[in-house]
Amino acid sequence: MALGEFDLIARYFANCGPQRTDVRVGVGDDGAVLAPPLGHDLIAVVDTLVEGRHFPPDSPPDSIGHRALAVNLSDLAAMGATPAWALLALTLPAANERWLEQFARGADRLLRRYGVALVGGDTTSGPLTITVQLLGFVPRGLALRRNGAQPGDVVMVSGTPGDAAAGLALEQAQLVAAEDVAVALRQRFLYPAPRVELGVALRSLASACIDVSDGLGADLGKLCTASGCGAELELSAMPLSGPLIAAVGRARALQLALAGGDDYELCFTVPPTAFSQLVELARVSSTPIARIGSVTERSGVVLRDGATVTQFSARGFDHFR
Length: 321
Hints:
The protein is of the alpha+beta class. It has helices at 5-12, 61-78, 97-113, 163-171, 179-190, 196-201, 216-227, 242-248, 250-259, 275-285, and strands spanning 23-25, 33-34, 40-50, 82-92, 117-125, 129-139, 154-158, 208-212, 230-234, 265-270, 289-296, 300-305, 308-311.
């Protein structure tokens, strides 16, 4: 017998994620009733993933569930928010129970890791499309923004940008690498690790922050535009992973780091006076961060490679190009 919409929800999503005491009404009613903490601002983000556009058609279902949550968690991290509640809209070509079980497992794993309750959603039939809305909160007035960078601030990035783009190329058979290298890079694409804890810790340190989803160069450019400034990046300081360099070489690795996308790292700026605090924060939390440049008065992002300076021109990922 075909699985109906309400059976699907009850079987795979009614118990997905943890229970939270601030959820007055959750899955099963016409809407969720939530109780945000007093003295906090509510932060809302939403992302849609379409098969063939945002992930390959043969992607593991648990990876799709993971990514659908991770891309939104990364947006909340860029705002310095504590994630709390999620809504899921799922469009399916068919109610494949094995696919649903694995998808729900991937989503549940990330929901529980970050204490996010699934409080509602919708299902319908059609081409595979996943839309997730996440809600979180931040102490009033402390949300991180893109528009606070000042000339002289230090530009930082977490993790090793470029890995996910190489992982996608491997998934699409556009790149060949040794098995251990391929496994490491595929993992970075299929199961991104949003920097939620770092985002929360940056509330009192960062002057501006953005998540790196469309390529480091393009996303830093957006931050600079919002802040009315520019940035100079030192290519020699770019944090490139060993697997990435092994797979494509240093020159191509730099290109993927700057314009590859799908990293879901944080790029942020801090005043020079806060840099020592930031280094200590990274040490205590075991979060990899790197100083990659500085904020300038002149608009645009420029790349410095020794004595050579060039203007960054890649436009990052745009859904309508």
